[in-house]
Amino acid sequence: MWNNIVQGFSEIIQAFYLATVWMKIPSYGLAIILFTIAVKIVLFPLTRLQMNSMRAMQELQPKIKEIQERYKNKPEKAQQAVMQLYKEKGVNPMSGCLPLLIQMPIIFALFSSLRLFFDPKLHPPYVDLTKAGFLWIENLGQPDPIILPLLTVVVTFAQQFFTSMTASGKIDPTQRTMLIIMPLFIGWIARTLPAGLTLYWVVFSLFSAVETLVIRRMSGVAKGAGSKA
Description:
By secondary structure, the chain is mainly α. The chain contains 8 helices and no strands. The chain is elongated. Pfam families: 60KD_IMP. It comes from Thermacetogenium phaeum (strain ATCC BAA-254 / DSM 26808 / PB).
């Protein structure tokens, strides 16, 4: 089954490549960018749900702390009271994980697909290896050890920063530590991944950062309109 999924991703990338051929700008790099944008559009409802859930949970933090203080010697009672609060406010704490849960299989499948897709000997017969390069990258199936990992660090930091600010309007010390460590960790891993996969991550994170700003602005406009009413 997994091989069929990987093959399916290869055929999807090829379909986007054929779209670039139709646009007279044949490029597998551009095909991966278009694929990333398509994934981003499909996941947009879940992303918005995630942000709304994070904001709602942040707003409930004072009440949650009050419950934890009230039942500090009865953790099970505290947990039940917190879950009841979530239920009353219509908040699903698991909804914040949905985009990530869907993203992980895509990343794993894309990783497996791209390693073979641009392999000089094992690539599918329909792949045009003369278009395997993109900008400074010689082969999207091989790692880019410097530029893409650096871009990964920058855009991952931007995405996490804007998401944190959207959720709470401020960054606490714990978030500040993760805000630095996670981008560096992901950038370090990106040094060994196929450049096509890192390109996917960079474009996805970049659009996520922009998307977060747009949603925050839309939410702010809606809240402002509501307060006037």
